[in-house]
Amino acid sequence: MRKISFVLMVAILIIGGALMSVKALNESKSVTEKSVRMLWLGASVGKAWELSKWHERMKVDLVRFETVDVYAFDKTEALKEIIIRPQRKFRLTRSYLKGFFFPLPKKPNILIIKECAAYFPGDLEMYEALISSWVLQCKNAGIKPVLSTVVPVTQEHDKSRPGRLKGILVYNDWIKKFSAENSILCLDFESVLRISEDNRSLNPEFSSGDGLHLNSRAYVLLDEYLRDQITLK
């Protein structure tokens, strides 16, 4: 019975995939070969930001964003799969089978690594080692790595999660120093959304209400900041 169910599932995927592949191929033609492929490796911010539509909002035709969501600080496994593109790691799953009906995923030109405030406080020494390793792996694979600071939390949020804001700021200071020493672009999201240089907590005006996640006003600012950084760098 299980074999029959599996065969039926594969048959449905083949039929549905054939139909979807036509649409995918047509959409892919709209992206020129000259487009810069940017991949956002992060968590909730990339998804809520709707980066796949960023080029439309900002009218930057030669940039295309893809997001890969990993809800943990350690993104090693996801990075491995990105680096081996256009190959794909075998998994007997529905999403893997559907992938046969779409263009093979291309290796990005630029990979932005973004960590979430929820992972702090944490093992800073391990975080630093992971970031250093990922940067080296990207460079060896011909991918330009871009790092970023972590968006801080509000002071009110920090009261319920003692040490979170301090852990974020220590990490941000390190990531900026590491980026400068290794000639890597660092997107300083903290500087865009904090209250001030002296008060580096998240401005409550940009909080969705929990002091951790962002609202639409914040994403408008981040849209503009990202455009300026891409244009200038």
List the helices and strands and how they pair.
Layout: H1 2-28, E1 36-42, H2 44-49, H3 54-58, E2 63-69, H4 76-83, H5 94-98, E3 110-113, H6 124-140, E4 144-148, H7 155-160, H8 164-181, E5 186-187, H9 189-193, H10 216-232
Parallel strand pairs: 1-2, 1-3, 3-4, 4-5
Features:
233 residues; globular; 10 helices; 5 strands; 5-stranded parallel β-sheet; Rossmann fold; alpha/beta
Proportion of residues in β-strands: 5-15%
What is the name of the CATH superfamily?
A: SGNH hydrolase
Roughly how many Å apart are the termini?
57 Å
Report the strand count.
5
CATH class: Alpha Beta
Largest sheet: 5 strands, parallel
**If helices are DSSP runs of H or I spanning 4 or more residues, what is the number of helices?**
10
**Computed structural class:** alpha/beta
Major sheet strand order: 2-1-3-4-5
Kindly describe this structure.
- Helices cover 49% and strands 11% of the residues.
- The chain is an alpha/beta fold.
- It has one domain (31-232): 3-Layer(aba) Sandwich (Rossmann fold), CATH 3.40.50.
- It is globular, with a radius of gyration of 20 Å.
- Mean pLDDT is 85; it is low at 13-32 and 92-99.
